[in-house]
Amino acid sequence: MVKKGLEWAKSLYQDRAQRAKELRNHGKKVMGYICCYPPTELITASGMVPYRITGTLEPITEADAYLETLMCPYVRACLDLGVKGRYDFVDGIIWPHTCDNIQKTYDIWKHYVPHSYYHYLDVPHMSDPSSFEFFAKGLDVLKESLEEFSGVKITDERLTEAIGLHNQNRALLRELTYLRKPDPPLISGAEMTQVVLAAMSIPVEEANHMLRETIAEVKERKDGLKQGLRLLVYGSEIDDIAFIKLMEDCGANVVIDDLCIGTRHYWKDVSADGDPLVSLANRYLGDIMCPRTFRRSPGSRQQDLDNRFGYIRDFAQEFDVQGAILYIIRYCDTFEFDAPEVKDYLQEAGIPVLHLEDDYSLTSIGGFKTRIQAFLEMLE
Amino acid sequence: MEQEKRPEEVKKTSARKWTESAKKVRGLVANMYLRAITEDKPVAWVMFTLCNELFVAMDVLPVYPENYAGLCATKRVGDPFIDRAEADGYSNVTCSYARIGLGYSALWRDTGEIPPFAPDGGMARPIMLVGSSLVCDTRYKWFQAFSRYLDVPYYAFDMPGPPAVTAHRPDVREQYMKYNLTQLHGLVSFMEERLGKKMDWDKLDEIVRRAEKSYRLWYDAYMMAGRAVPCPFPAEDSFRCFVPAFFMIGEQEALDFYQGLYDEIKYKVDNKIGSLPEERYRLLWGGGLPPWHTMGIFNYVEDRGALFVFQSVYLPLNPADIPDRITNPLERLVYSRYEMGIRRAEHDRKLGLFGACNFVGLGNPLLFVDEFKVDGVVMHWLRSCRGATIGQIYQKRLLAERSNLPVLFVESDMCDIRDYFEADWKMKFDAFLETLETRKRAGA
Ligand code: SF4
Ligand code: SF4
What we know:
The complex is a heterodimer of chains A (380) and B (444).
Chain A: H1 5-14, H2 18-25, E1 30-33, H3 40-45, E2 49-52, H4 73-83, E3 92-97, H5 100-103, H6 106-112, E4 117-122, H7 129-150, H8 156-178, H9 189-199, H10 204-219, E5 230-235, H11 242-249, E6 253-258, H12 263-266, H13 276-287, H14 301-318, E7 323-329, H15 333-348, E8 353-358, H16 362-366, H17 369-379
Parallel strand pairs in A: 1-2, 1-3, 3-4, 5-6, 5-7, 7-8
Helix pairs in contact in A: 1-9, 1-10, 7-13, 8-10, 14-15
Chain B: H1 2-5, H2 7-13, H3 20-38, E1 43-46, H4 52-57, E2 61-63, H5 65-74, H6 79-87, H7 96-111, E3 128-132, H8 138-145, E4 154-157, H9 170-195, H10 201-227, H11 235-241, H12 243-247, H13 252-270, E5 281-287, H14 297-302, E6 306-311, H15 329-350, H16 364-368, E7 376-382, H17 392-402, E8 407-412, H18 422-443
Parallel strand pairs in B: 1-2, 1-3, 3-4, 5-6, 5-7, 7-8
The structure holds iron/sulfur cluster (2 copies).
Residues 72, 74-75, 98-99, 101-102, 236-237, 292, 329, 332, 334-335 of chain A line the site of one iron/sulfur cluster.
């Protein structure tokens, strides 16, 4: 039986590569990318399937022979899968310079994980007009290189069409997110993560179809979730439901997130007007709220903080949360540096915060149970 | 006072100095902090950004908190700063330079006074902060975090290194050069605004050219020393002598220093004056910053007949000849950085490495092992620095693909002594030297 909506998402979550492999067997090329920054629109426009590289919470068994343990466990987990051959179905990879951990792993990936195509995308850390110009030029070089690899000319029409499809995709993900607003929410945080990951594993048209089904299904739900404390989770690459599930098993509802496998990926659209490459540069460099991008202070300290973190407070207010959990993956420097300020900022806005730092493994996550319970008790 | 109280520790902490040049560095550093406090000139806190020339030209005294953190570690007074930063929420895996700098600012803000135990009189109050994304993420994020404690305007800028694969394409070259130039212009405008005066471009030109000469001498001196058998300039000295190049470049004193260093090394090389009576094993410090808290460990190794003849970490980039047609000093600066980056990227590419160099060449250790007749390589995993740690295993693997040179990993941190276990290090070094001895015998 063909699975639909949430069931389809769940099955993809459990075996993310199934559809991509199938399509590949039918002659499609699968283009891997890591992190939020490579514009998937360019991949779609070249006729290939964008496929987000992620890790796993299972113990890392092989990557330690290639990467130091004193670095981002998420990147290590990705490489672990890579060297085990679990990404062999991926034809090529786009690797952005987003943070030190990712940047420095590019050569290692290239050396030990076999694909037919590799592209390194420099992403500026600043967000000045010159940075956008630089990035747009980098996207132009990427576009050329994807054309060569795919044999498909990425015309403005094709690109504009792909932008439209991906905007739809983001709009649908936002629509689903808004179904977390009621109390109790209509969809759990763990389910949402499954859906987002599933959508990152199949062609955008199919993902949009899946999302429409999911939205319809969720709207109809009668056996909704239980009421519970409403939480926001802030962090980076949570690509497994274990952590969110832990909080939900403790009786809370994660109703909004600021995560890479979450709103950071879909909250902002690409402008449909003007030069598409410029629009992509503006959206990816300017609108993804990740601490790896430096935003010049607009003036006072308070303005600077509002500019950097105001959107998190707005999320918290809009989704009516009672507390926020900062889940920081150890060795992720850009988040490590921001976390204490995010904590102060949210607390000042009256939102209690639990700041956790973690090695991102199943065992370590389990160890947080007592702290999360204590935090929830405090919120009651 | 401090020295009287803890004689063994102080003795153990620092390494002996082999060259007159290395002996001069401590004075230069002390003066750098002192003048910032005593002279009536604006002070900027700056990350090493490859553009000290601009500060010299604007008559600003730069203070480098990363250097200051290293100083605190060598004096073993970093702990209270680190503790304070951690108490304020900064993880113990964030760069220990940053933790020292942030803890320093926090304590300063609390009391309104420079913390009394701060060495060399402390870091003077800045009127601006300048960070960049060069080399690592900490370099702009840490300075952004300063705003929690210091109400001082901050400018951060990008200077991406050339991408190895496409660096030669004219359009890519233009893309990078143009961006780097615009970003530096941004810095100049920021400084002009803060200082209420314009850049003196003629003066900058003179300073940039002086810096070019200094870079060249630095590079030639280091390479000459690495090649020499016996080696007159071990790694612990070169870990001192990069300081003027990083933090004083453009000043006449830095040029004089590198002229002196060059002359001294040349004299010793010409006269075959080495450091140890016998260099039984020549080692390369191939990755990771040194343990500033315990530089005396180098002597431990030397006492066993091994000498670190080179370190490939604080490395002069191979200087480029800048064409005369480029007369604008900022353009000269950008051109030289890009060209230096290309040389490193080219080398990496020959080794089959393809990433952007971001000015940290993955291929560094491989560059030197043959030419400098090295018997073994030591690399240091730093708990709190991704910039200089990620890639070491890969480098070891690359070395293994080309030779069977032994590689030793030691682990601690550049400043945070809590990550350092001396007995463990000594045991590892002893075992490593035994391996080298066995190999030597087998080869003999
Ligand atoms: S979690 Fe942090 S360190 Fe890891 S890949 Fe993402 S941004 Fe980089
Ligand atoms: S390279 Fe390492 S030690 Fe230097 S600032 Fe970056 S993180 Fe800190």
